[in-house]
Amino acid sequence: MIAWIALASLFVLACSDGRTSLGNSAESGNPEIAGTIRFEDGSLAAYARVAVVPASFSAVGGDELDSVFVGVSDSLGHYSFDSVPEGGFSLEAMDESTGRQFLKLGLFATPDTTTLDVDAVLEDLGGVRLGAHGFEDGTTGYVYVPGTTILRPVTVKMGNIFVDSLPADSLYPFVFISDDGYALSLEKGVEVVSDSTVQVDAKKVSFGFKVPLNTAQIGLSEDLLHFPLTFYLDSADYDFNGMDRLEGTWSAMLCGDTIPLDVSFADPAAGKFTFWARIPKLRVNSKDTLYLSFAEGAESSFADSAKAVFKNEFIAVWHFDEGAETVNDASGNLYNGIPESLTVADEAIAGSALHYGGTFGSVTIPGTASGEFDVSVKDSMTFSVWVKMEGNELSRVIFGKGATQYHLMYLAGSDQKSWLYEAYTDEIFGTDSTTQSARYWYRDSSALSDVWTFLTVVQDSSGAKMYVNDSLVSSTPAIGTSSDVRETDSLFIIGKLIYPRDSETNSVTHFFNGVIDELHVSRVSRSETWIKASYANQNPAVRWPIPQAIR
User: CB burial class (10 A; 0-12, 13-18, 19+) of residue 441?
Assistant: First the structure.
């Protein structure tokens, strides 16, 4: 039960320490309290800070403990105090290097006590989530525990008070005082557990956003079916402080129906989330509204919701949101990548991204030597990717399936610099022993700069088209010949291409230098409207659509 009391009637705590030597032990030279401080694994905690805190002490007034009650354990973890406060006290200990703490309340020493032996085990900290019924979100104040040094500034969030960094013990009394003069105290103690957040009369959290899908803002010219739409939230949209302690489910509804939703990136502590939702029909001049909600403790009502977002002819989708050690395929087709020598980039199109070093770093996709990635220039296929290059003096490969099948790259040259999509075909030129394979080049020679650029290649029976951002830049290839044999057994690799691969001495590796993000591969030819909508939707400079919190 929670008791409500006005601040004026809250008990007043004296700050005098009221210490005494407790004659017997002081006269004999024995300490009043002593013990050993250890970690949970049994190892000794040398030079840990240790203090005895009078039961009458209150941290609220800003008073500090008398120096006689503050000490440090020795190299073997031993501590002792020659005098202790009368009227009861608590023992606190902390290892500054690990942050682990110990707290024991309700200790007493009597005149008959020779030495009070109290050993301490330092543990990881815990937290408390306290229901703040009657307080509005945003109410500020502090939580403290009389008779300890615990004093935490807090803010009511999502109907609750979240108190971090508490030592594991039964804390009583446990008091919240708001800055406007009201208090909330617990009639029973709070049992704090290491590495856990204890809930006390906590209110379940739920909140929502509306996401207006006003397609007139992006000039949509035709309806798009099963379109993967991305949008994100950050601290500018909502104060997510405390959400890292919650477990629940995000869901999306459109026109009364639950639709597939993927939370591709989530950093609750920083309040950053990236979502992908499959829109059944993104309509021209639509004024539909998508409703996004979070419900604590709820389970997803849509089976395999994340994988279902990319079910419209996608064969692989890489968000690069998992960090530098893992690359997952969000399509559910299990084309998961193996990253090598990469780091997490400082910025991304959505969520997170990977940085490529220019002389090292790549992602290899197993299982792509044949099958869905084994295509010719006239097979239906769409590649789209965001890149941000660092420098343009050297050629850089974005992705490819071998030097003589297909690849997308930046081509540096003394006379011309360009984005280049190159594909070899099964066509044969010539009739003698010197017959050569056909080689198709799609180039864009527009000005290049070190900014985020959206590149798309679309193939169909007539050949390929290349788009830069939302503009078609090349649809007529330069067709040449090559004495190199078209090889199709290479793996699909992101950020690297070796040419020629069979040469032990003359091969050149073209590594990408910069950031690659949101590489999507479809075994279908996407329309120009689809490409323009994808660019507008994914472009962080446009940020369409923008979620709005429902208060």
Answer: middle
- Residue 58 in this model has a pLDDT that exceeds 90: no
pTM for this model (two decimals)? 0.72
- Which amino acid type is present at position 262? D
Which of the 8 DSSP states describes residue 541? T
Q: Give yes or no for a contact between 58 and 13, defined as CB atoms under 8 angstroms apart.
A: yes
CB atoms within 10 A of CB 329: 20
Provide CB contacts within 8 A for 433, sequence distance 6+: none
Q: What are the CB-based long-range contacts (under 8 Å, 24+) for 155-160? A: 155/241, 156/132, 157/239, 157/241, 157/242, 158/203, 158/205, 158/207, 158/242, 158/243, 159/131, 159/132, 159/133, 159/203, 159/205, 160/129, 160/130, 160/131, 160/132, 160/202, 160/203, 160/205, 160/242
Q: What whole-number distance in Å separates Cα of residue 366 and Cα of residue 155?
A: 49
Task: Give one DSSP letter per residue of 47-68, joined into a string.
Answer: T-EEEEEETT--GGG-----GG
Per the CB < 8 A criterion, the answer to whether 208 and 252 are in contact is no
Q: What span, in angstroms and rounded, lies between the C-alpha atoms of 86 and 279?
A: 69
Question: What is the C-alpha separation between 307 and 260, in angstroms, rounded?
Answer: 8
- pLDDT, tens digit (0-9, with 9 covering 90-100), for 11-39: 333 333 333 333 323 333 578 899 999 99
Secondary structure class of 472 (helix, strand, coil): strand
Longest Cα separation, the chain: 113
CA distance 56 to 16: 7
